[in-house]
Specification:
alpha/beta, UDP N-Acetylglucosamine Acyltransferase, domain 1, five-stranded parallel β-sheet
């Protein structure tokens, strides 16, 4: 599982916390991913670590997550996606078919079926494909009728993609693929390894209608959380006269009388003052919104940020870069 990135798209939430440790529906994001893998028979996950590895070790000191054994492979330097996979696989002694996934992709993909398809095709690697409206931000993967990948086009210009099927971030891989990854430098699985495998005729893709969300941006991270709105118990800190709708609010967060919170995430210790308004926004741990202040249009407050009483913000990220 790739969890080593710095999560720059989610800053300021990820200044000191890996994005996979951010809460989704009141639980760390990684637990949703691991729990899904466990449902398909996975009993060991190797974490390809980079940024803030201690956050994972501290959260799971017994080396287990959702009943799954965790192993840690800490890169000596950033190795990019293929480099990280090869390093983690070597560290864990992988010598059989294995699954690779991104730790910030939330999906109900049938991993069991993906592995079965991979084996039927005799593939070297198989990519989960998902359909998107705008494929220009992804690796686009055209295939023939058997699923054989014809090309791997990383982030094509808008309107020029040969298909709307894109790389979903879950792969089934044979160990011999690792031999194609040069050691000692950064290697991208999307820009080098997969295009190289196309020529072999043994790179396949399987399209799936499974739900799929890359939770690596503020908008998609908010969307991931709002899937759990109504299923997370209301915190005791919502005062009488406050209005909270379609939101995920941590148990120890506080929403004062007269405040309105809609379609938002309030993390641990966040505070919303009297008559304040928070809409479509994310409040990090300990963030505070002063009396009568207003946050709209996907504001993101980092840990401990304070918004002054009466201040009006739209689309702000605090602190800034």
């Amino acid at each position: 599982m790739l969890v080593g990135g710095m999560g720059t798209r989610l800053r300021p939430l990820t200044v000191s916390v890996p994005k996979q440790m951010l809460p989704v529906g009141g639980r760390p994001m990684i637990e949703h991913v691991v729990e899904h893998l466990a449902a398909h028979g996975v009993d060991e996950v190797v974490l390809a670590l980079g940024f803030r590895p201690d956050a994972f070790r501290s959260a799971y000191p017994d080396g287990r997550c959702c009943g799954v054994r965790l192993r840690y492979a800490l890169e000596p330097e950033p190795l990019d996606t293929a480099g990280a996979v090869a390093f983690a696989a070597a560290h864990a002694g992988v010598d059989d078919t294995f699954v690779v996934c991104n730790g910030d992709v939330l999906t109900d993909l049938d991993v069991t079926s993906l592995v079965a398809f991979h084996r039927r095709r005799g593939a070297l690697a198989t990519i989960h494909l998902t359909a998107v409206e705008d494929p220009s931000a992804f690796g686009v993967v055209p295939t023939d009728d058997t699923g054989r990948v014809l090309a791997f086009v990383e982030k094509p210009p808008a309107g020029e993609a040969p298909t709307n099927l894109v790389n979903g971030g879950t792969y089934v891989v044979e160990p011999e693929v690792l031999e194609r990854v040069p050691a000692g430098r950064r290697v991208s699985i999307e820009r080098e390894t997969f295009p190289d495998l196309v020529a072999s005729g043994r790179l396949y893709g399987l399209a799936s209608p499974a739900s799929w969300l890359d939770a690596g941006t503020p908008a998609t991270y908010l969307a991931a959380n709002l899937r759990h709105a109504g299923r997370v118990p209301s915190p005791v800190g919502v005062e009488p006269g406050a209005f909270v709708e379609g939101s995920v609010v941590a148990a120890d967060a506080r929403v004062a009388a007269g405040a309105r919170v809609r379609r938002s995430v309030l993390m641990a210790g966040a505070r919303v003052g009297v008559d304040a308004v928070v809409v479509d926004s994310i409040l990090g741990p300990g963030a505070e919104v002063g009396e009568g202040a207003e946050l709209t249009e996907l504001c993101v407050l980092g840990a401990g940020v304070r918004v002054a009483p009466g201040e009006q913000l739209a689309g702000a990220r605090l602190p800034g870069p």
